[in-house]
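Module 6 notes. Inverse folding takes a fixed backbone as the condition and produces residue identities as the prediction. Think of it as a translation problem where the source language is geometry and the target language is the twenty amino acids. Below is one complete input and output pair. Work through it position by position during the lab.
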């Protein structure tokens, strides 16, 4: 099994990564809820991420397996 790691623009890959982000958030929220910690619904501030990426403050490394993002 081989993986490819690359540095991407957040704007370039956000739509492809959104399902992973949602799954990760749901898993985290489930664990926190079980601990009695209130968690808000998934609502990322996309414009903030894109602005940070454009300013060079946010780097997005994407791990792909068979051309599908996995991390």
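Target side of the pair, the amino acids:
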């Amino acid at each position: 099994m081989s993986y490819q790691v690359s540095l991407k623009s957040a704007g370039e890959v956000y739509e492809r990564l959104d399902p992973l982000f949602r799954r990760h958030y749901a898993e985290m929220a489930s664990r926190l809820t079980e601990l009695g910690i209130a968690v808000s619904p998934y609502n990322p501030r996309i414009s903030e991420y894109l602005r940070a990426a454009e300013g060079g403050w946010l780097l997005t490394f994407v791990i792909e397996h068979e051309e599908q993002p996995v991390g």
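Reference fact for the lab report: The mean pLDDT is 92.
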